[in-house]
Write a structure and sequence with these properties.
Elements: H1 2-15, E1 20-28, E2 33-41, E3 48-51, E4 69-75, E5 83-88, E6 91-95, E7 100-108, E8 118-120, E9 123-126, E10 134-135, E11 143-148, E12 156-159, E13 162-163, E14 169-171, H2 174-178, E15 182-185, E16 188-194, E17 197-205, H3 209-230, E18 240-247, E19 254-257, E20 261-266, H4 270-286, H5 313-330, H6 336-352, H7 361-366, H8 368-371, H9 382-385, H10 389-407, H11 413-423, H12 433-443, H13 446-457, H14 465-470, E21 474-478, H15 482-485, E22 492-495, E23 498-501, H16 510-513, E24 521-525, H17 533-541, E25 548-555, E26 558-565, E27 572-576, H18 586-596, E28 608-610, E29 616-619, E30 644-645
Parallel strand pairs: 1-11, 17-18, 18-20, 29-30
Antiparallel strand pairs: 1-2, 2-7, 3-6, 3-10, 4-7, 5-6, 8-9, 9-15, 11-14, 12-15, 13-14, 16-17, 19-20, 21-27, 22-23, 23-24, 24-25, 25-26, 28-29
Helix pairs in contact: 3-4, 4-5, 5-6, 5-10, 6-10, 11-12, 12-13
The chain binds zinc ion (2 copies).
One zinc ion binds near residues 257, 283, 287, 317 and 320.
């Protein structure tokens, strides 16, 4: 304590730096430009190294934001030009200054999402790593930003930067600034409290205020339900958490987590797609614990100058991907069938994708810089070598949760998450892979954790999903139907010459086994010559697994003839027993109830959906009106229109009304 005190007294005068001041304006928003001016004062180094970030927290590929920067110039603060040299595409060295360097440039941005800037006459949607330069030696300096709004605009500023009376917005350092995206537009603002915590939603969209208010209520449900996993909300830096939402046809679908906010963009309108959009909210808000506070050591501090690599993304992203749909199910926003589809999709991929034999889930995570919003000019063999750490991690979270519930009655995955937050409450104490295993061992047993990590995390063995899921009355089975029958191992492009293979064929598939690969054109199938997918489906309809088909192929080496042996698709689906004509036992019902019921510690707001045709209200998890099949909405069509609440006795009254809102009965095998 004494030592620390002395160090602080000694160090403070040295560390105190004048704020880096940024001024941003948007005089050419119609053409997607912002003008940025950055002032660095008290510059001691003779050469000031000014940089544009190459990567952005939460993204793992290099984005080279410098590509959108031009008209770059530096002056000394009194209008005299300073010498600028460029040692790299994203760095400018400024010399000859007398302690002050003013940098000015134009930055272009026409992509409203969680990574880039979207500047146009409707908004300035800014991810600051894509917007502002920074300088070596000034990373710890406080920052202050000023935004000049277009004259006559009705724009307002929503961000988790701290607001001041003099019109400036501040952050204690560069890291915090970069973690505070900015939405400047004519947005709808909603605010609410859960317990002692304050939340806000700034929504830029083209729908009605009623839809916005209804969506804010959905966000409130998600926030309340997720608090239950951890027992409390994080302490937000400026006293509140803000959802920055852009639902606009010209936005780009995305979600990006931050410490005190999230940016979510989507192209669809709330009136049509609120039930899908709330899924992204559920994922991103979970990150305010998992990855923004429970932080892998590999990402702390974040390096803006290179691709950041983390072997823990299966936990940071994958477990978040598990809790996203789980939260919706627990809060009554999703029915058990849709929940099973989400989990079944992840399990099927992990069980069947050839990539599982190539990398373990840690090495899959480390490949994020090649796949996370990354682009490749050259063909890549991802289909045979990679499983997304989102998907793989989701399946692991599911398997580990069910294993803990089976082996350690009363314990759940939520206990592991809480233990992780207790031991790694914030970025000052980030975790390692060893910490993950040790904490799981504390919640369960050292042997259990060792076994899970050795076989399924350091190893490549899949968990025993069929058995684990059966305890909850969920049937993991092979998919059947047309999609399963036409499994060949690659997608084709249809031309008048035949079917051209568009991507590397999947290891173990009929095409792969016959030596067919990208660029091959299949002209003849036995005596047939299909020229559309429909023709081919009709041809395959007459065959079964094990049948041979003789193919004529135009390949790189010339014409060739090969036989393929048809096989059934290995794809699996997860079906609730009650939809698979199987008996759901009381034990299964109890297991499922303990797993999927609400864990909220504060009251969940009640939300409904409404039928625009018969004007009844229905449980939110319904997609369609059980009476007339109409797609349900989250609000009245016209403000003031009255809805008729449906009663439990009334529901199901018409003979045709299915119990699960239009998706009841035995699930077909051909769907996604
Ligand atoms: Zn995520
Ligand atoms: Zn209806």
């Amino acid at each position: 304590m004494t030592k620390w005190f002395c160090f602080t007294l000694f160090a403070l005068p040295l560390l105190a730096q004048e704020p880096v001041r940024y001024e941003l304006k948007f005089p050419n928003a119609a053409h997607h430009e912002a003008e940025v001016r950055a002032t660095f004062s008290g510059v001691r180094q003779p050469v000031l190294e000014v940089l544009m970030s190459r990567s952005s927290p939460g993204r793992y590929a290099l984005h080279e934001f410098a590509k959108n920067v031009y008209h770059f110039q530096a002056t000394d603060g009194q209008g005299h030009a300073l010498e600028v040299t460029q040692p790299s595409p994203y760095q400018w060295n400024v010399t000859g200054h007398k302690g002050t360097v003013v940098v000015e440039y134009t930055v272009f941005g026409d992509r409203a999402d969680g990574t880039y800037n979207g500047i146009d006459p409707t908004h300035a949607h800014l991810n600051l790593p894509a917007t502002v330069v920074w300088a070596h030696g000034f990373e710890k300096a406080p920052v202050s930003l000023k935004f000049e709004l277009p004259a006559g605009s009705d724009w307002k500023i929503a961000t988790q930067l701290a607001q001041h009376d003099d019109g400036t917005w501040t952050a204690p350092n560069m890291d915090r600034m970069m973690d505070s995206p900015v939405e400047i537009s004519h947005y709808y603002m909603a605010e609410w409290k859960v317990g002692g915590s304050q939340f806000r939603m700034a929504l830029h969209h083209r729908g009605t205020d009623e839809e916005a208010a209804a969506f804010a209520r959905l966000c409130q449900v998600v926030v309340t339900e997720e608090e239950g996993v951890f027992g409390a909300f994080p302490k937000y830096d400026n006293g509140n958490y803000t959802f920055l939402l852009d639902y606009l046809p010209y936005a780009s679908g995305d979600g990006m987590e931050h410490r005190n906010s999230t940016v979510i963009a989507g192209t669809r309108d709330l009136k049509d797609a609120a039930a899908q959009m709330i899924g992204t909210v559920s994922h991103e808000f979970f990150h305010s614990w998992n990855v923004k506070r429970i932080r892998p050591k590999t990402l702390e501090p974040f390096d803006f100058e290179r691709a950041d690599m983390s072997g823990e993304l299966w936990f940071a992203e994958g477990f978040t991907n598990y809790y996203g749909p789980l939260t919706l199910k627990r809060a009554g926003l999703m029915d058990v069938d849709r929940f099973a589809r989400s989990m079944g999709g992840a399990v099927s991929t992990v069980l069947n994708a050839p990539g599982r034999l190539v990398f373990n889930v840690i090495d899959m995570s480390r490949r994020a810089p090649f796949v996370d919003a990354a682009t490749a000019n050259d063909p890549v063999n991802t289909g045979n070598t990679f499983i997304s750490y989102y998907t793989y991690g989701q399946a692991l979270a599911l398997g580990i949760d069910l294993s803990i519930r089976t082996r350690f009655p009363g314990k759940t995955l939520d206990d592991w998450m809480r233990a992780m937050w207790r031991e790694h409450p914030d970025t000052q104490k980030p975790y390692t892979l060893d910490d993950l295993q040790r904490t799981l061992g504390e919640v369960t047993s050292k042997e259990f954790a060792g076994d899970i990590f050795q076989r399924h995390i350091y190893g490549k063995e899949p968990m025993d999903y069929e058995k684990l899921l059966a305890r909850a009355g969920l049937l993991l089975e092979k998919r059947t139907g047309a999609a399963a029958r036409s499994y060949l191992g690659a997608q084709g492009l249809w031309t008048d010459r035949g079917m051209e293979i568009a991507a590397p064929t999947l290891i173990g598939s009929p095409f792969y086994n016959a030596g067919i690969d990208r660029g091959d054109i299949i002209t003849d199938w036995d005596r047939g010559a299909p020229r559309t997918q429909r023709d081919l489906d009709a041809l395959l309809e007459k065959h079964k697994a094990g049948d041979k088909i003789h193919l004529k192929v135009d390949s790189r080496g010339g014409k060739k003839e090969v036989d393929i042996t048809l096989a059934d698709s290995p794809a699996m689906q997860l079906v609730p027993y009650e939809l698979a004509d199987k008996q759901l036992t009381p034990e299964m019902t109890a297991f499922r109830e303990a797993w999927l019921s609400s864990k909220a510690v504060h009251p969940l707001p009640k939300v409904m959906k409404y039928c625009p045709l018969c004007r009844r209200s229905h449980p939110f998890e319904f997609d369609n009106c059980p009476y007339d099949g109409t797609a349900l909405r989250i609000t009245a069509l016209k403000p003031g229109e009255e809805y008729i609440p449906d009663t439990p006795g009334g529901r199901g009254a018409p003979a045709a009304a299915p119990a699960t809102g239009g998706r009841g009965g035995r699930r077909g095998g051909g769907g996604q």
